[in-house]
Amino acid sequence: MNKNHYAILMAGGVGSRFWPVSTKAFPKQFHDMLGTGETLIQKTFSRLSKVIPEENIFILTNELYNDLVFKQLPNLTKRQVVLEPALRNTAPCILYASLKIQKENPDALVIVAPSDHWIEDEDTFVKNVQQSFDFCSKHNALMTLGIQPTFPNTGYGYIEYDALSNESIKSVKQFKEKPDYETAKMFLSKGNFLWNAGIFMWHVNSVIDSYRKLQPKLYSLFEEGIDTYNTELEGNFIEENYMKAENISVDNAIMETSNNVFVIPAEFDWNDLGTWVSLYDKLDSDHDNNAIINAKSLVSNSKGNIIRTNKGKLVVIDGVNDYIIVDKDEALLIYPKEKEQNIKVVLQSLKQKFGENFE
Amino acid sequence: MNKNHYAILMAGGVGSRFWPVSTKAFPKQFHDMLGTGETLIQKTFSRLSKVIPEENIFILTNELYNDLVFKQLPNLTKRQVVLEPALRNTAPCILYASLKIQKENPDALVIVAPSDHWIEDEDTFVKNVQQSFDFCSKHNALMTLGIQPTFPNTGYGYIEYDALSNESIKSVKQFKEKPDYETAKMFLSKGNFLWNAGIFMWHVNSVIDSYRKLQPKLYSLFEEGIDTYNTELEGNFIEENYMKAENISVDNAIMETSNNVFVIPAEFDWNDLGTWVSLYDKLDSDHDNNAIINAKSLVSNSKGNIIRTNKGKLVVIDGVNDYIIVDKDEALLIYPKEKEQNIKVVLQSLKQKFGENFE
């Protein structure tokens, strides 16, 4: 395997729309959301390891999740776990990790990928990543993997590419923020719009050059620590300086304003497992379309539910349709699928009612 | 307090209609079904102790529940706990306990009462028991406490009393088994029918006389052990002979065929807490008629539910009406109130599906 291949696995998110399973103390990526026997971060790590040497896969996460990461990926070394001491959006941590990687290997080709997405067809994923790395090794390019949209989803950003291009790798015209429904429909009808899945690939020098040009303040902040990176002094430097970083996404910071952005339309099925219903779409369900995870169940006169409990819990349900039913030791959620976007609001209401934070 | 007053508290039932809270290993009477801080048997014991000296209250239960009884009523002595070595209906154990009490105190006035009913107005209960004891001390009478019916319930037996009587204690004409709906309506329209709540009062000699006359075989079986009762030899005798006893209720065995049966119409409110819905009627509920026990809850767009969890469990429910929602560590039930009579059938289905007994 190519020793210049690197990955930055983004594993700092909270996934509060998956409450009560996903919580701040134990977020979604550390759960076996699909009931496969592996957590999402374990699945993602194993998928990436088909094209990246395991020792070159870095986990970018919050200090809170250090123990969870080592528990679930026990072969990692400390070098591979990059901890953010403060909650910031993606731009600062990607720059920081990139500088560390560049110092270790100035020829590195890097993929940045979320740790909590579903991709079943791993061979095609590997093929698309390999194509992108090949391109990035020859061009000063910031690449993304774009997902062919299947409906006018208003929950994702979109990538508009050059409609005239016949290449498999296409030049990007614009990044578009989450659109309203009419705009999303227009994007789909045009045919040259893809969903932004937050998967990026580039030569480490290309991305750092972009930060230097487009985010000089952020670049200076982290460049100042370069002598400490990958040494014992790094921790102190980061502890002191990380919180000074602007809270900005990598999309806003460099992708939207760079003119060397390219996209490869993904040839594999993808799901961001962003909500209970998108998870439901990826689960096996019974003849009544009930997807049941972990429970021993007797479900009657009920259709289209997603039911998740602790392993082996007995569940008896009668006459419930299209619900999210999630039970764990401390909390039980019985909620209509069609209102799942409100689960974040529910968490606010719980906080108001009980004066406690249940996230 | 009158040292001749005795009680036999019936605490051997399983209460399977309250699954998953009530199970064979931990039946209803040992649960705090009302969320008051006391279990049903504790409440019943404390109610009886207002008219019976505590040391004269005997608990009649199955060997399985010996530990639960002593845990929940820690001041009991071994003498007060009468264990059935085999599951039998009420006639054998009441005769057995009565013979033990008669041997200890031939002047005993005894009340037999279920351990899992709800009676709020304890003073009136005590008054009615006292009236009955007074009557039984003067007459060779088998007395019952009858409940004024509030609707044509087909789940109880009925007691028909002498419509012409002006006394507060009335002569009973007939015991009626559980009627069909039309018959129950007819009973209510007549005005001289009461629900049989399984509460009996008598002089110990009166009940034993009735057994002798009406159930000579059963009487002989238990009379043969008289020398062993209240001695160390009792256990062996019962272990050897109890299972020979006919499986018959006290109603069938003596009440229905005796001609010295009397009833006092109860002047207190009563509920047998026989099903989730009858329990629901006795619980406080919020402005949407949701009765919530133990849970920390956020219940929206939902009415008429009974919700019970472990203490302090967080429950979020939206858009569910008239349901029984019961959660405990090993099981979760989400079931329409109107189908609650099917819960026993559910237990059969679970057994078939999983090859295990979940009762």
Structural commentary:
Two copies of one chain form a homodimer. Chain A is α/β, with parallel strands linked by helices. Chain A is 30% helix and 23% strand. Chain A is built from eleven helices and 15 strands. Chain A has helices at 40-48, 66-72, 90-104, 122-138, 181-190, 204-214, 216-223, 234-241, 250-255, 276-280, 343-354, and strands spanning 5-10, 57-62, 81-84, 109-114, 142-147, 158-161, 170-176, 193-203, 261-265, 291-293, 296-300, 306-308, 314-318, 323-328, 331-336. The A-B interface holds A 20, 295-296, 298, 309, 313-320, 325, 327, 329-336, 339, 342, 346, 349-350, 353-354, 358 and B 20, 295-296, 298, 309, 313-320, 325, 327, 329-336, 339, 346, 349-350, 353-354, 358. Strand 13 of chain A pairs parallel with strand 17 (331-336) of chain B, so a sheet runs across the interface.
